[in-house]
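During the no-cost extension, the postdoctoral fellow (Dr. R.K.) reprocessed legacy sequence entries with the updated structure-token encoder. One reprocessed record is reproduced below for audit purposes.
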Amino acid sequence: MIVYPVGCEGTIVNQECVGHLGKAEPRESFRAVAERQEVMHGDDFGNIVSFRSTCGVQDSENWMCSSTWDGRIRVWTMREGKLTQPDDAESGHHHVYVPWWQWWLRRFQ
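Re-encoded structure tokens follow.
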């Protein structure tokens, strides 16, 4: 599953950018394996950048993983092909995921 991140110049609330959408960021991919209950996270070049084995995987479009970052538990969820991520300020994420066509248009801004 490929997801399309775009920078958010503002605040992220409920996976939406409250402010101005910025530039397109490199695409990301996720490969979920239900038989092993694991998810692999890849970059725009097909390299695996992280591996999560603390997951519950139904199929490639429906899964949930947890990880610990800075002593806090973070939960990443893919529901019906839509990725959600922790949206609090401490998560370090300053982007939202958009449809491919919106990401593509942002590449030229």
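The first strand starts at residue 2 and ends at 13. The chain is about 5% helix and 60% strand. The remaining legacy entries will be reprocessed before the final report is submitted.
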